């Protein structure tokens, strides 16, 4: 087998592989000999089929199997021998001439194919001890815990029937019938419906017109469905509702005690406060970590400058661009509405894609050198999280991850990336700073990718920019051993 490099330009490589016809025929003959004693052909006893006849019957199909195996297995071996890693799956080129293909399958011509790929650039890791970050920490006070408990307790709030007029915060029990142009519409009728006034559960204007009514009252109210109402036959339409008030009930005061905890499925008020405090601290902790990670990525971006594989950048840009256009379409806006142009946005998001790819490769190299591993248990937990997001579709999700090449890597990547960040936090300088929750939750414009924000749709670009402050690594495409940092940490 001959391996000839035909292109070495930057990160781009092209390899021509030639396997002589005699070598292909020798492999084919070896396989035919191996099956000679097992094949069954009418007119011949087992093991007595003349080799020439066997070759005539099965030679071409065996050669086709060889070709398929070679293009499947040899590329990775060739790259390994060359000490190279391909950024994406190498593109394989073979003859499209039918006559030439027939000669190859008949063992009359050398088998040639080409490999086109981009190599992963060599990354010389630098000393991380110079990286310094500020970790913002919020002290959760007792009032915030109790305020959150009161919000949660709304679901367990009790109501007591009252006489007199309904006020904001009261719960009314009503029968109603909705009509458009005097005709009742589907879904516009209910009986014994319970509605807390001021909860904004119903369309704008509905609840306000029930304030002041009392049990036994009947009233016809008029409202207008929002223009973006999901039911197209009602969107923007004026409608009337025949209302019959059956009960008015006042909300009982909520007291944080063991009885409330019991209603929420816990043994005591102390346990309730402990759990709620933990939830609040976890929420703040996620924001804190996001900001710390952003600072790390910003400094790594300054430390490492190298050419990135174009195909990886293309794939990441397409992910970002698809999301941007989806968000614009959903909001009914254009690039002009966001004070930019499509051309300018493309340029800036291309820069963002390059940054993500470069940081992804850096994080991957750091993790690989540090021996960071993702355990089977961590992968299992990640899979279970995916299953919980799609109740009723567990079987389809499992089949997807079992049968889709690269699907497992999409679970592994964000786990690996977070573990690399944990590793870095043990090497860099971290200074804790106490801040208020308002300071923590404020937009960190300094840490965000300012250039991308200038040209991007400002309100709907969040998903494309937000993954750890614009800077998460590629989400989809990544090199075989470099998929480490392809996922977002969120």
From TrEMBL:
Pfam hit, one: Trigger_N
GO molecular function: peptidyl-prolyl cis-trans isomerase activity; protein folding chaperone; ribosome binding
Reactions catalysed according to its record: [protein]-peptidylproline (omega=180) = [protein]-peptidylproline (omega=0)
Keywords: Cell cycle, Cell division, Chaperone, Cytoplasm, Isomerase, Rotamase
Alphabetized HAMAP family for the sequence: Trigger_factor_Tig
PANTHER family assigned to the protein according to its UniProt record, in alphabetical order: TRIGGER FACTOR CHAPERONE AND PEPTIDYL-PROLYL CIS/TRANS ISOMERASE, TRIGGER FACTOR-LIKE PROTEIN TIG, CHLOROPLASTIC
Domain remark text: Consists of 3 domains; the N-terminus binds the ribosome, the middle domain has PPIase activity, while the C-terminus has intrinsic chaperone activity on its own.
Protein name as annotated: Trigger factor
Source organism: Shinella zoogloeoides (Crabtreella saccharophila)
